[in-house]
């Protein structure tokens, strides 16, 4: 087994605030171990879409990606946001490379099948096809991949893909080469036992305790997809998953974590 690898995902709560993003990237750059950054899209695509006359449609909080929208998110996620992050990382002396799942055939996916809802050009990752050889070569060359939340269907179409899922899929695929800690950064210090008390962080959760918390309806709905992704990743070879605040990223790449740690 090779060295440690951190797969770190940031969301719109950082992307939408330039000062918060700058602070985070400065801290991220100080992490000396191999690392991958996965970023979400934030509200920038929605705001730019409104200026272009493209109205965003959502079902259960998930964006419907029609022909106009996939062009929009490709420009904003894969272009504007991704390259701004890479430029700032270069300023911080981190040699980063901005990627989508199309680049180097790094993250193949397939278009989500139509069931109750047609989500359009939305992709589900084919984890077993992730190009680990390419990513390992970049990491061993001290190059930091920065992934936008886009994949491709191997038939010429770009697909809008959930950033949490991309992060967990990368972590799973690379767990055969590295000892991986997958880190989800969001606006809380970790998973809270009491949603109204920011200091009620649950330091460790195993599958049994998670089932109990869900049965008792103690967890707020927004954290459930992250925890489901986390336990899926652990079951498929990821060593550790950490859910915590972006401000705590340096501490959460050490043994003395402040967020919620899920271990294999």
TrEMBL record:
Gene Ontology molecular functions: acetylglutamate kinase activity; ATP binding
Pathway: Amino-acid biosynthesis; L-arginine biosynthesis; N(2)-acetyl-L-ornithine from L-glutamate: step 2/4
Gene Ontology cellular component annotations, sorted alphabetically: cytoplasm
The enzyme's E.C. designation: 2.7.2.8
Catalytic activity: N-acetyl-L-glutamate + ATP = N-acetyl-L-glutamyl 5-phosphate + ADP
Subcellular location: Cytoplasm
Sites annotated Transition state stabilizer: 9, 226
Residues noted as binding substrate in the record, renumbered to the chain: 41-42, 63, 160
BP term (GO), one: L-arginine biosynthetic process via ornithine
Keywords of this entry: Amino-acid biosynthesis, Arginine biosynthesis, ATP-binding, Cytoplasm, Kinase, Nucleotide-binding, Transferase
Enzyme class name: transferase
Domain named Aspartate/glutamate/uridylate kinase: residues: 6-244
Similarity section: Belongs to the acetylglutamate kinase family. ArgB subfamily.
Function recorded in the entry: Catalyzes the ATP-dependent phosphorylation of N-acetyl-L-glutamate.
HAMAP family: ArgB
Protein name: Acetylglutamate kinase
Protein source organism: Rhizosphaericola mali
Lineage summary: Bacteria, Pseudomonadati, Bacteroidota, Chitinophagia, Chitinophagales
Gene from which the chain derives: argB
């Amino acid at each position: 087994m090779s060295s440690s690898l951190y797969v770190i995902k940031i969301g719109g709560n950082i992307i939408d605030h330039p000062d918060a993003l700058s602070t985070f990237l400065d801290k991220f750059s100080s992490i000396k171990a191999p690392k991958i950054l996965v970023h979400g899209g934030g509200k920038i695509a929605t705001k730019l879409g409104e200026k272009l006359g493209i109205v965003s449609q959502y079902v259960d909080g998930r964006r419907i990606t029609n022909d106009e929208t996939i062009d929009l998110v490709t420009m904003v996620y894969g272009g504007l946001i991704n390259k701004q992050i890479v430029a700032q990382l270069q300023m911080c002396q981190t040699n980063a490379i901005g990627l989508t799942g199309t680049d180097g055939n790094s993250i193949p996916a397939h278009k989500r099948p139509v069931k109750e809802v047609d989500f359009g050009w939305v992709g589900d990752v084919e984890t077993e096809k992730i190009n680990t050889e390419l990513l390992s070569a970049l990491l061993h060359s001290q190059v930091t991949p920065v992934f936008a939340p886009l994949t491709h269907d191997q038939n010429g179409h770009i697909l809008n893909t959930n950033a949490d899922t991309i992060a967990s899929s990368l972590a799973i695929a690379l767990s055969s080469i590295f000892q991986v800690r997958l880190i989800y950064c969001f606006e809380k210090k970790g998973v809270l036992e009491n949603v109204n008390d920011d200091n009620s962080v649950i330091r460790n959760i195993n599958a049994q305790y998670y089932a109990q918390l869900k049965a008792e309806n103690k967890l707020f709905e927004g954290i459930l997809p992250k925890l489901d992704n986390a336990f899926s990743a652990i079951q498929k070879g990821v060593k550790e998953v950490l859910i915590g605040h972006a401000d705590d990223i340096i501490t959460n790449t050490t043994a003395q974590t402040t967020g919620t740690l899920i271990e294999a």
